C-alpha cells in the first residue's frame, strides 16, 4: 500500500477512552436501510429494504443480499461499497479454508475471520473503519446460525436481530414475536411483518430482498415473485 | 469529555464525521457538479446512448482533443463527467484492466464487471487516507452477451447501479426528474427514440437548442455492438428529427 505517510492509526483513543471513529461508523450504519435476520428451528432468514435512489435504477442490477459460500449468506446495513469489499475478502477466506482443510468453512470460523478484517481497519495506519454492520446467516453441522458483526469487529450470535434506521422498533417487534420453536416459513412471515412496520410506501417483491437457508444447507435469495407470494400470505 | 470531530481532520481525509458522513466523498460529488457539464444516458430496447455537452472554452483549442467520451475496449464506452484529469487516469486504468481481463480469461470484459471494478477502486479511495476520491462520475455502456444493452453509473462514493436512464453533472437532478417522467411506463425505445430522448432531455434541461458541434454522442447497438461516437452529420440528423417532431 502506498500509505507510508499514514503509518499512524486514524482511529485513536479520545480522553474519555472511546474510539470515536468506530462510534461515527456505527452512526453511519444507523442511518442505513433497515435489515434483519431471524433464526428458526430449521433454518435462517435474512431480509432488507431495497430502496433505490430513483425509479430509473434497474433494480435487477442491485443485489444487497450476497452468498459467501453455498451454505452461508450475508446482508448489511450501512455503506454499500464497504460491504462489497468485505464480501470479496470473506469469499476468499472461505476458499482458502477449503483449500487447506478440504471441507466447507464452519459459520463461526468465517464470521471470526471477517470480524478480524473489520478490526484490522480500526487499528491499521491510514484507513478508516468499515461503515457497515453485517448479519451472517448459515447452516452447518452445528445447525442454523445467525451472527451480527459490527464496524469494531465484535460479533455475537443472535436468535433474531435488526440493524439500520428502524432498529429499535424492529427489535421490539422481534422480541414480542420470536419463539424458540419457530419454523422457517413463520420466520419469513415475521421478517416481512417487521420490515413492514417501518416501511415508507408500498411494500412489494421489488423493494425488499429476502434470503433463506433451510435444512438442505443451500443459501438462496428469493425471487421477487416468491416474495410477492409470501406478501400475499401475510395480508 | 469527548473529542468531537476527531481533530477537525474529517474534512481533509476520508474519515468519519460525528454524523457518520464522509466529507471528502461529499466534496468529490461537488467537484463533479462544479465542472459545469451535464451528461445524460438512456437505455433503449436494443441500444444505449450517452450525450454530453462539448464546451470548448477557447477558440484556439483543437476541438477534436476536447472529449469526455472514451472507448475502453472496442465494445465498451465510458462517459466521464467531472474533473478531466481524474477522468483520464480512470480511463487509462480501465483500459489496462479490460485488456488484461481479455488476455487472462479469453473473453471480453462485460459491462457490469468493468463498472464493478471502477466502483471498487473508488471505494478504496474512500477508505484509505493516502489517496483522495476521484472527482468523476463514470457512465459505462455496452451490449452484454446475456442481458443485452446495459448502462451503469459509478460515482466517487463507490456506488454503482444499472440504469434505465440517468444523468450526471451540474443539472443532474433536473435531468433525472425529466427522465423519470419519460421512462415512467417502462417504454421500449428504438435506436432513434433512444438517441432523441437523450438529446432532447439535455436540451430541455439546459434550456437551449444545440448545434451538432456543441454536444458529443456515443452509442452501442445490438446490431452493431461496437462503441461508436457519432459524427456531426449523424448528430445533425437527430437534431433535425427532434425539431421537426416538436
UniProtKB/TrEMBL annotation, chain A:
What domain of life does the native source organism fall in?
Answer: Eukaryota
- Its protein name is Uncharacterized protein
Which organism encodes this protein?
Answer: Melastoma candidum
Q: What is the lineage of its organism?
A: Eukaryota, Viridiplantae, Streptophyta, Embryophyta, Tracheophyta
UniProtKB/TrEMBL annotation, chain B:
Highest taxon of the lineage: Eukaryota
Q: What is this protein called?
A: Uncharacterized protein
Give the species this sequence originates from. Answer: Melastoma candidum
Query: Which lineage ranks, top first, belong to the organism behind this chain?
Result: Eukaryota, Viridiplantae, Streptophyta, Embryophyta, Tracheophyta
Amino acid at each position: 500500500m502506498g500509505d507510508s505517510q499514514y503509518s499512524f492509526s486514524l482511529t485513536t483513543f479520545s480522553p474519555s477512552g472511546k474510539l470515536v471513529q468506530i462510534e461515527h461508523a456505527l452512526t453511519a450504519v444507523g442511518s442505513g436501510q433497515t435489515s434483519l435476520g431471524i433464526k428458526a428451528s430449521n433454518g435462517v432468514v435474512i431480509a432488507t429494504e431495497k430502496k433505490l435512489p430513483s425509479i430509473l435504477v434497474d433494480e435487477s442490477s442491485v443485489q444487497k443480499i450476497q452468498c459467501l459460500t453455498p451454505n452461508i449468506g450475508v446482508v448489511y446495513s450501512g455503506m454499500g461499497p464497504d460491504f462489497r469489499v468485505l464480501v470479496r475478502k470473506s469469499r476468499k477466506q472461505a476458499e482458502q479454508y477449503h483449500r487447506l482443510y478440504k471441507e466447507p468453512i464452519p459459520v463461526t470460523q468465517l464470521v471470526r475471520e471477517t470480524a478480524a478484517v473489520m478490526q484490522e481497519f480500526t487499528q491499521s495506519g491510514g484507513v478508516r473503519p468499515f461503515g457497515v454492520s453485517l448479519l451472517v446467516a448459515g447452516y452447518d453441522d452445528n445447525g442454523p446460525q445467525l451472527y451480527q458483526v459490527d464496524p469494531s469487529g465484535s460479533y455475537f450470535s443472535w436468535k433474531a436481530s435488526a440493524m439500520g434506521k428502524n432498529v429499535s422498533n424492529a427489535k421490539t417487534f422481534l422480541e414480542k414475536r420470536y419463539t424458540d420453536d419457530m419454523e422457517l416459513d413463520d420466520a419469513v412471515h415475521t421478517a416481512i411483518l417487521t420490515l413492514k412496520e417501518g416501511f415508507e410506501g408500498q411494500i412489494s417483491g421489488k423493494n425488499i430482498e429476502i434470503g433463506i437457508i433451510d435444512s438442505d444447507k443451500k443459501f438462496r435469495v428469493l425471487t421477487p415473485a416468491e416474495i410477492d407470494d409470501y406478501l400475499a400470505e401475510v395480508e | 469529555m469527548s473529542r468531537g470531530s476527531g481533530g477537525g481532520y474529517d474534512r481533509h481525509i476520508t474519515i468519519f464525521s460525528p454524523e457518520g458522513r464522509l466529507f471528502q466523498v461529499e466534496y468529490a460529488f461537488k467537484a463533479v457538479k462544479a465542472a459545469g457539464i451535464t451528461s445524460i444516458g438512456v437505455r433503449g430496447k436494443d441500444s444505449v446512448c450517452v450525450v454530453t455537452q462539448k464546451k470548448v472554452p477557447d477558440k484556439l483549442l483543437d476541438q477534436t482533443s476536447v472529449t469526455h467520451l472514451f472507448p475502453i475496449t472496442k465494445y465498451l464506452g465510458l462517459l466521464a463527467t467531472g474533473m478531466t484529469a481524474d477522468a483520464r487516469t480512470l480511463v487509462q486504468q480501465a483500459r489496462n484492466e479490460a485488456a488484461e481481463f481479455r488476455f487472462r480469461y479469453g473473453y471480453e470484459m462485460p459491462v457490469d464487471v468493468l463498472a464493478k471494478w471502477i466502483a471498487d477502486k473508488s471505494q478504496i479511495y474512500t477508505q484509505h487516507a493516502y489517496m483522495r476520491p476521484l472527482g468523476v462520475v463514470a457512465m459505462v455502456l455496452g451490449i452484454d452477451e446475456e442481458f443485452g444493452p446495459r448502462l451503469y453509473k459509478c460515482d466517487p462514493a463507490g456506488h454503482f447501479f444499472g440504469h434505465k436512464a440517468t444523468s450526471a453533472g451540474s443539472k443532474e437532478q433536473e435531468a433525472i426528474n425529466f427522465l423519470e417522467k419519460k421512462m415512467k411506463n417502462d417504454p421500449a425505445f428504438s435506436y432513434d427514440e433512444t438517441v432523441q430522448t437523450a438529446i432532447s432531455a439535455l436540451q430541455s434541461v439546459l434550456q437551449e437548442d444545440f448545434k451538432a458541434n456543441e454536444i458529443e454522442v456515443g452509442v452501442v447497438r445490438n446490431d452493431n455492438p461496437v462503441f461508436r461516437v457519432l459524427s456531426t452529420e449523424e448528430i445533425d440528423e437527430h437534431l433535425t428529427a427532434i425539431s421537426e417532431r416538436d
